[in-house]
Amino acid sequence: MTLLALNPDVSAFLNAVQGLRIGAEQVQARQTITVLNPSTEERLAQVACGEADHIDAAVDAARLALSGPWGTMSSHDRGVLIWRLADAIEARKDIFGQLDALDNGKPFTKARDVDAVYSARHFRYFAGWASKIEGRTIPVSDPGRFNYTRVEPVGVCGLITPWNYPTLMVAWKLAPALAAGNTIVLKPAEQTPLSALYLADLALEVGFPPGVLNVVPGLGAGAGAALASHKGVDKIGFTGSTETGRRIVAASTGNLKKVSLELGGKAANIIFPDADIETAIEGSFWALFGNNGQSCTAGARLFVHSSIREQVVAGLVKRAKALSVGPGMDAQQHDLGPIISQQQMDKVLSYVGQGQADGAQCVAGGERIRNAGYFVAPTVLDGVTDTMSVAREEIFGPVMAVLSFDDEAEVLQRANSTEFGLAAGLWTNDLSRAHRMAARLQAGTIWVNTWGDTDAASPFGGMKQSGYGREMGQEAIALYSQTKSVWLGLRESDLI
Predict the structure, then answer these.
(1) Alpha-carbon distance 47 to 44, whole Å?
(2) Tens digits of per-residue pLDDT, 217-238?
(3) Are residues 192 and 153 both part of a single domain?
(4) Domain shared by 35 and 169, yes or no
(5) How far apart are CA 289 and CA 320, in angstroms?
(6) Cα atoms found within 13 Å of the Cα of residue 481, Cβ hemisphere only
(7) 21-25 long-range Cβ contacts below 8 angstroms, 24+ apart
(8) What residues make up the domain containing 203?
(9) Residues 274 and 384 in one domain
(10) Is 133 contained in some domain?
(11) In the chain, which residues have pLDDT < 70?
(12) Nearest 5°: phi and psi at 149?
């Protein structure tokens, strides 16, 4: 195995104990987080581990910036800074790609050309929004009164991001929050804090005032809980598990802060017999195995019409066995990288074992591979039924569950028979069916003859236990804004 050469800036970054980014300072902490490389199981970096007192300091810094240089900056100038940050991310896409490939394990080319590039696009899109957030004048019934609205930032926003897309998930939340004029305390996942810390340095470099973006890595029970319950935080934006989302909602009630949640999923993906079958197989395969199955929108429940099941399963198995799996920084770039951690790998493998015990057939994969690193072979389970744990619970790994169905009404009921509602999709050449199913599937995003498409301009979020609030698009601006109504009493002379 030959590894890609590290960018000198990445080497220097990894060799220094990374402090918390609070205001313009790097702050060390009493404890550190050992960041592991999931491709090798080796120590990658040491990062300060934030606790409640560090969250206090970060909130104070954010509050100071909000009442000072950032809060008084024109919307135009705010947009210019966000655009500069987008340019800087794209110029340093190799660095962001390497950092994500190292602490997340995903293939470097995907981390660079997809995650980093799309992150820059998100910042550019919302840079344009900064100067277009406007209120209204409202014709009220009393001619002696004038009424208008102001759209203002929520205030200090606590953002908590996951490990599966370390740079991109930060961009999804940070870009609209900045465009709306908020200041930020960001807690990235403790497994993958590196790109968020680097981004904070980059923000200062391009001209953001200190305190606008503060980054406090830490454990969920420490920094995460302190951020969610902090009375100086006006909004929490969280992406992660449904269980953790519930705890955040409970913690946030202390000051009734605004909360948005993008939580777990168990997406139903349906292949009808009138679909272009080969296209459907290819699309459905990557709907699950893209990002190694470590996506909340993964097409984990594949419903296949019984008349084409054998053909579809054969196509899935062929593709699974052909995939290359290996380290994210391998010079020979692989299709998939490792699972994020030993704990997550064990969880994934336990689901495979439980699925087999329940009667599913493992027709591809199902085992740990390679001598080092948290690698799991791409796995296809056939003969899955609705009651099996592999069909009901989020696995978050490269495990596809294949279920059979016979008619549209049946599969619709089964697809909706889940507590989750983040995404769903179908493959069909029947336009009427496409619209009919899109209207009835209970999920925040529906894909028809495609999977996984997102765009900075298009809203994204869940239903049911997959959360609430919509990221991206105009809806994201509303998520990070609040509306003030202003009434003006007019003198009689003003009415002439």
Answers:
(1) 10
(2) 999 999 999 999 999 999 999 9
(3) yes
(4) yes
(5) 9
(6) 23
(7) 21/197, 21/200, 21/201, 21/213, 21/214, 21/215, 21/216, 22/54, 22/57, 22/58, 22/61, 22/214, 22/216, 23/61, 23/64, 23/210, 23/211, 23/214, 24/204, 24/210, 24/211
(8) 8-263+466-483
(9) yes
(10) yes
(11) 494-496
(12) -115, 150
**Are both 31 and 117 inside the same structural domain?**
yes
Beta-ladder partners of 149: 485
Q: What tokens does 105 get?
A: 């394990």
**Residue matched to tokens 């003969």:** 383
Whether residue 298 sits in one domain with residue 156:
no
Domain presence at residue 120 = yes
pLDDT digits (tens, 9 = 90+) for 119-138: 999 999 999 999 999 999 99
Q: How far is CA 272 from CA 269, 384, 410, 489, in A?
A: 10, 18, 12, 63
Neighbours of 163 (CB within 10 A): 22
Burial of 146 (0-12, 13-18, 19+ CB in 10 A): middle
Counted residue by residue, the chain has a size of: 496
Q: What CATH number corresponds to the domain at position 340?
A: 3.40.309.10
Identity at 459, one-letter amino acid code: P
Domain count of the chain?
Answer: 2
Is 494 part of any domain?
A: no
- Calculate the dihedral angle through the C-alpha atoms of 220, 223, 227, 232, rounding to the nearest 10 degrees: 170
Residues labelled as active-site residues: 262, 296
One domain, residues 121 and 171? yes
How far apart CA 195 and CA 199 sit, in angstroms, is 6
The answer to whether the CB of 275 falls within 8 A of the CB of 431 is no
In a domain, 3, yes or no: no
Alpha helices by DSSP H, listed for 68-141, are: 75-91, 93-103, 108-110, 117-129
In angstroms, the Cα distances linking 460 to 120, 133, 367 are 18, 20, 34
Distance spanning both ends of the chain, measured CA to CA: 83
